[in-house]
Design goal:
Chain B: It holds the Pfam family ETF. The complex is a heterodimer of chains A (571) and B (254). Chain A has 571 residues and is an alpha+beta fold. Chain A has helices at residues 3-6, 9-19, 25-35, 42-47, 73-82, 91-98, 118-131, 183-192, 209-215, 222-225, 228-231, 261-264, 298-312, 324-334, 356-372, 385-396, 398-403, 420-431, 460-466, 469-476, 501-514, 528-533; strands spanning 87-88, 112-113, 135-138, 155-158, 165-169, 174-178, 232-238, 244-247, 273-280, 287-295, 316-323, 345-353, 378-382, 407-414, 437-442, 448-455. By secondary structure, chain B is of the alpha/beta class. The relative contact order of chain B is 0.18. Classes of the chains: A alpha+beta (571), B alpha/beta (254).
């Protein structure tokens, strides 16, 4: 049995109770994890959240609660004084912030705080530091790896009310805004001024820019405008002790010392709370075309990509793909009709430029070439806003269609481009009839595959078949087990499939440096055995680590690649 | 029976674009704004192409009145399956004052010249919402009209049209030649597929001037002012019923 279960007497009672139902032990643990509650213990159900459906002995099990303080009446009084009317304890209102968008993980926080200024965030964090209260920063709560919601009763610190645009420079295109601005609102603001945001993703209606930066979100425009590591010029971050770190520069070039903001980009909230962002925005293109093409084989798709880069080059702004299974889900669940005939693979290509005649000429040449060389079997072009939106929705709404198909297991993998679809076909073969749908889609132009598997309900046996098969497969080709979604809670135990032990050890040191008491976001990014190693301070807040849950088998390594010692989860 | 269908297609500001009124209140900003085919005209083209695919008509001719850019709109119709296009050149001041009466005179003249059996138009344009061109064209030609069509069936030399009216659906039978105007539920316009887009580049678009058709473009209408609708005022929250009554009295509503 895991360390997790050894601590609670109540748990043993409930186990005995359930065992009378005649279930074998392994299923018992699974049932408990799935339901997160049992007849005997309300406290137990509060202490364990809905894990990702893994069996208790899998690395996906819920971590143990650290001994941080519980919220008292005095604490609430302080919060209510600091944030009048914005310290929420009404369970109905806190409920939605406790659960992620996929409804796959749920915490049991009782306090939701909504600051409006950086100063308020600083006051809250320094108070929580002094009281040893754990805090969970939350933006739009659209993350897909369970990183945005509390695991236990951490206080939720929402940036939703920090939604002011601070300044916009029309000449340089530099936008400065608070972290709680919704991405779509920023896009609309900029479009009126003839600019656009350098990133775009399906969750734009809800996701906030602070969260985007904390996740180092990729999105549909990365191919053209690059990642947030290049476009974010400055950040304002509040550290765990309430100290405000003002790195909110608006300069393109500034080589004075270490570039600290890069630490926070992609840190998933573990190093500090981002409160303001300054970002470089590109001009709104005068001419946008979207092409929806159909290909017979993935090989032809890749050749089309090469042709595309050659003939469309500098006007190419997106190259996405989806497979026929995705189309089937869009047709079935969202009633979106296929704009062209049925093909095994579909490509969405977007061009953005400053001259519509020049762009349509290039596009027509490319399409003519693609059709005559039979790389593409069918397709359609859109130049009008309304049609462009419709064609994009074929790609952007696949995530939504999947939620209607059943319980979804989501994977976001970076691989060498030619290997991308091989993972999907291998997974289909590996799972056989056990999965309802296995679909592949994503930013093929960036070498990023979104592999999703659905089943009618949470199925631990299915999960055990998928993981670690998928991670081992990825490690075999030196890919990344999380290209853009981050590690969050769900993938924290798999970091070693893509990063070496010394690297992760240094990351742990940074975490301890910036959050010595460990009250900021915990149980994200790092696996438990790593946390136990980053005990920089033997203070009483450092828990005795549970017996480390090892990855179920060491990753397979390709011959001649890095040595085995880098990848073992246990020493 | 030539089996020829004329389809009118209008180039309008794309419906997804945010409209802005010009600073001098004489009209809306059209420069640099995305334009596309009027959605009801798309439905009209789709219906004509469907009739051709069913071999009920022999040729589909797409017609548009406007400046040089109207040719793009005709090309879209050709990519959807029209056989050839006619671009009636109207630009500058004439284009600014072009309205249903002039367009219907042009369509009537073309119908006679091309010996058309059927004219299909969209029920209205989304920029002026006039809903007049179809009706006026039928009157000028003295042809029957099937407007707001949600279903069209060719039956020998007659046409059965199901019309969407306020009270529900009305079915009428009219003689050919006739004018039809398409309503939203008539069909779902197809996406122009690549092979058709490529083919469309080779199809012919003829250039015609209104004077060649003997049409006088002078308008009898003058636009006085164009302005934004009034901004929606924010609402007010009140705590008690007394407050509500007080505020209503203040505003002179009770």
């Amino acid at each position: 049995m895991l360390g997790v279960f050894q601590t609670t007497q109540k748990l043993r009672t409930s186990l005995r109770l359930l065992s009378r139902a005649g279930l074998p032990p392994v299923d018992l643990q699974v049932q408990l994890l799935l339901r997160g509650r049992c007849p005997q213990s309300a406290t137990f159900s509060r202490e364990l959240h809905l894990g990702p459906g893994g069996s208790a002995s899998s690395p996906a099990a819920a971590p143990q609660r650290l001994p941080f303080s519980r919220v008292t009446v005095e604490d609430l009084t302080f919060f209510r004084k600091t944030l009048p009317g914005r310290a929420i304890t009404d369970p109905d209102l806190v409920q939605s912030s406790n659960e992620d968008w996929l409804k796959s993980v749920r915490g049991s926080s009782e306090v939701l705080l909504r600051p409006q200024t950086t100063q308020e965030v600083s006051q809250i964090l320094s108070y929580c530091q002094s009281r040893n209260l754990a805090v969970n920063p939350q933006g739009g709560n659209t993350g897909l790896v369970g990183g945005s919601v509390p695991v236990y009763d951490e206080i939720i610190l929402s940036t939703s009310l920090m939604n002011n645009i601070l300044s916009f420079d029309k000449i340089s295109g530099i936008l400065t805004c608070q972290a709680g601005c919704v991405l779509e609102n920023l896009s609309l603001y900029l479009e009126e001024r003839d600019y656009i945001m350098p990133l775009d993703l399906g969750a734009k209606g809800s996701c906030q820019i602070g969260g985007n930066v904390a996740t180092n979100a990729g999105g549909l425009r990365l191919l053209r405008y690059g990642s947030l590591r290049g476009t974010v010029l400055g950040l304002e971050v509040v550290l765990a002790d309430g100290q405000v770190l003002d790195c909110l520069s608006t300069l393109r070039k500034d080589n004075t010392g270490y570039d600290l903001k890069q630490l926070f980009i992609g840190s998933e909230g573990t190093l500090g709370v981002i409160t303001a962002v300054s970002i470089l925005c590109p001009r709104k293109p005068k001419s946008v075309n979207v092409v929806f093409l159909g290909c017979e084989t993935f090989d032809q798709l890749l050749k089309s990509f090469q042709l595309c880069k050659g003939m469309l080059g500098e006007i190419l702004s997106a190259f996405e793909f989806l497979d026929s299974e995705c189309m089937r889900l869009l047709n079935t669940h969202l009633k979106l009709a296929n704009p062209i005939s049925d093909c095994p693979f579909y490509i969405v290509i977007e061009t953005s430029g400053s001259d519509s005649d020049h762009d349509s000429q290039k596009l027509h040449n490319f399409l003519e070439e693609a059709m005559t060389s039979l790389l593409v079997t069918d397709g359609t072009v859109a130049t009008e806003e309304s049609k462009i939106k419709t064609l994009w929705s074929m790609r952007e709404r696949v995530t939504e269609a999947l939620t209607h198909d059943g319980f979804t297991y989501k994977y976001d993998i970076s691989l060498p481009v030619e290997r991308i679809y091989q993972l999907v076909t291998d997974m289909r073969q590996h799972l056989g009839e056990r999965a309802r749908s296995v679909v592949g889609y994503g930013h093929v132009g960036d070498g990023n595959l979104h592999l999703n598997i659905t089943s009618s309900a949470k199925d631990p046996a299915l999960l055990a078949s998928i993981e670690p098969f998928i991670y081992e497969w990825t490690a075999k080709f030196q890919g990344s087990i999380s290209a853009e979604h981050g590690l969050g809670l769900k993938k924290r135990n798999y970091i070693y499939y893509s990063k070496s032990r010394p690297t992760v050890a240094v990351m742990g040191k940074m975490k301890t440096l910036l959050d010595p008491k460990g009250l900021g976001v915990q149980w994200r990014v790092f696996p438990p055995c790593q946390r136990s190693r980053c005990a920089g301070e033997p203070g009483r807040w450092r828990s005795t680590p549970p017996s480390p849950s090892p990855p179920t088998s060491p990753p397979q390594l390709a011959a001649g690649s890095r040595t085995a010692s880098h990848f073992h989860g246990i020493e | 029976m030539s089996g020829r269908v004329l389809v009118g297609v209008k180039r309008v500001i794309d419906y997804a674009v945010k409209i802005r009124v010009k600073a001098d209140n004489t009209g809306v900003v059209t420069d640099g704004v995305k334009h596309s085919m009027n959605p009801f005209c798309e439905i009209a083209v789709e219906e004509a192409v469907k009739l051709k695919e069913k071999k009920l008509v022999k040729e589909v001719v797409a017609v548009s009145c406007g400046p040089q850019q109207s040719q793009e709109t005709i090309r879209t119709a050709l990519a959807m399956g029209a056989d050839r296009g006619i671009h009636v050149e109207v630009s500058g001041k004439d284009y600014e004052t072009l309205g249903p009466l002039q367009v219907s005179k042009i369509m009537a003249a073309l119908a006679k010249k091309e010996d058309a059996q059927l004219i299909i138009l969209g029920k209205q344009a989304i920029d002026d919402d006039c809903n007049q061109t179809g009706q006026m064209t039928a009157a000028l030609l003295d042809w029957p009209q099937g407007t707001f069509a949600s279903e069209v069936t060719l039956d020998g030399d007659k046409i059965k049209v199901v019309r969407e009216i306020d009270g529900g659906l009305e079915t009428i039978k009219i003689n050919t030649p006739a004018v039809l105007t398409a309503d939203l539920r008539l069909n779902t316009p197809r996406y122009a597929t690549l092979p058709n887009i490529m083919k469309a580049k080779k199809k012919k678009i003829a250039n015609v001037k209104p004077a060649d058709l003997g049409v006088n473009l002078t308008s009898r209408l003058e636009v006085l002012k164009v302005e934004d609708p009034p901004q929606r005022q924010a609402g007010m929250k009140v705590e008690t019923v007394e407050d509500l009554v007080g505020k209503l009295k203040e505003a002179g509503k009770v």
